[in-house]
Design goal:
seven-stranded mixed sheet, disordered C terminus, two-stranded antiparallel ribbon, Rossmann fold, alpha/beta
């Protein structure tokens, strides 16, 4: 069994193990295929490439990480991506999740608050011919209103609450997948569903551990309203 097949097998085992928490017995075959087609080793530092297909997070510099493959697959599946969707990603990081999404949807808008990571990810995605992506260096708490509303929004770092701006930029019928919690404390992976009338339902999926979502403006709890209890 090669490394990619072993990674996929491990993901499928994790899905089975966590099914009572996530409510998912299996992942969408399109998501599994995308995980198989994107070489994770292209998105990790050179000295960590031997561990690229292990089911664990890896540091990518600037106190950031690339998430473990199972969590990438689960969050992607929770988004329920369609080939005609326009999605927003908050936290480009190395670009791995971005590349996965690009194989599943029509267009990916991705934001990274750390300038160096943004530049590196843009170049990496371009060099590897992931073309339906637009990236920018910006504060994810503000979203990207110019292209809203989005069929789906995925956040790859933990926020202390669900930013109201992202709720507003989500299309009716869409899903927002986001980890919620403080650093080094209990965090929950949440899915926010907006129905056709604009009503919001929030569900906890799984306990997780993510690096914190950075607010470039500072004072991340100021002038932001939590929707966690809606």
């Amino acid at each position: 069994m090669n490394k990619i097949d072993k990674m996929i097998s491990t993901i499928e085992s994790e899905v089975t193990y966590t099914r009572q928490m996530t409510g998912r017995d299996k992942l969408n075959p399109r998501v599994v295929d995308a995980m198989r087609r994107v070489p994770r080793n292209l998105f990790v530092p050179d000295d960590l490439k031997p561990f690229a297909f292990d089911n664990g997070p890896l540091p990518i510099g600037h106190n950031q990480t690339i998430s473990q493959p199972y969590i990438v697959a689960l969050m992607t599946d929770l988004l329920e991506p369609d080939e005609n969707d326009i999605v927003l990603e908050i936290g480009t990081g190395s670009g791995y999740q971005t590349a996965i999404l690009s194989l599943l949807v029509k267009k990916v808008y991705t934001m990274e608050v750390i300038k160096e990571l943004n530049g590196e990810a843009r170049e990496r995605l371009k060099q590897n011919y992931y073309q339906n992506i637009e990236a920018k260096n910006a504060n994810g708490y503000e979203g990207w209103p110019e292209h809203a509303p989005y069929d789906g929004i995925i956040v790859t770092a933990a926020a202390p609450f669900i930013p109201q701006t992202l709720i507003e930029q989500l299309k009716p019928g869409g899903h927002l997948v986001i980890p919620i919690g403080l650093p080094y404390c209990h965090q929950e992976l949440m899915r926010v569903d907006k129905d056709e009338q604009g009503n919001i339902q929030t569900n906890s999926i799984l306990g997780v551990s993510f690096v914190p979502m950075v607010d470039a403006q500072g004072g991340s709890e100021q002038n932001k309203e939590s929707t966690e209890n809606q």
